[in-house]
Design a protein that fits this description.
It is a single chain. It is built from four helices and 15 strands. β8 (109-116) and β9 (119-126) form a beta hairpin. It is α/β, with parallel strands linked by helices. A five-stranded parallel sheet has the order 6-2-1-10-11, with helices on one face. The protein has two domains: 3-158 and 223-237, 3-Layer(bba) Sandwich (FAD/NAD(P)-binding domain); 161-216. α1 (11-20) packs parallel to α3 and α1 crosses α4. The termini are close together. The chain is 19% helix and 35% strand.
Amino acid sequence: MNSIVIIGSNLVGLLTADILSKNNSVIIIEPDLELGFPANYPGRAESNQTIDDILSCEDKNNLFLLEIEGFTNFRSEWFSKLLTHKLAKNDVTILNRSRVSSINEIGKKLEVSIQGSEINNSQILCDTVIDFSESSFSIIGNSQHDYHSKSSKIIKPKLSTIQYFVGTCLLKDSYELQNFEVKLPRKDDLVEVWFKIGQEEEPKRGWIESKTVHAYHESKLMLLEDYYSKAKQLVEKMVI
């Protein structure tokens, strides 16, 4: 069994942790309070079965799943929360509100030094580091990771991204919107609307909540299956 540290908690990182945790010891280091929040991916899957396969026995009521137009829409932030719960149950160690301050090679291992609100200069020995921080949601404050090692044991996956404005409003307030990239109605009578930056509109009664994100994009805005496929490709390329 290998020890793997994952830095950052975007959806590909969480899914990578899920796959690797079946046969490895996995630690996630995340500077924010919650993993995968705010979500920087659309809540849409090509099949409800994909959601069931990933979340297995987790209670999916709060996802507000809605099958529409050949897709299944879901509440993305809650999906991240449920996936985090599953990881914790599968013995993945989660160090939130923590950041990496240095990484050094110690023999055949990597020594990862971390700092955080409840951690004082702790060190973790591991076999591999996978750093998703460059493609994770923007980090709050000055808690960014700060290390300069270029070891071959450190993997930095590249995800092509495009910046989007994402707003959530009542479904009945969304009908007038036209310039969206994708509109994702859910069973809670809310709809998540994605706009490319510069093309955003606003419903008459405004947004219930909104955010600006960099989302995974390869000729199109990627869906849940695309994120999972990317995670599987990454794991398959690793020598474990």
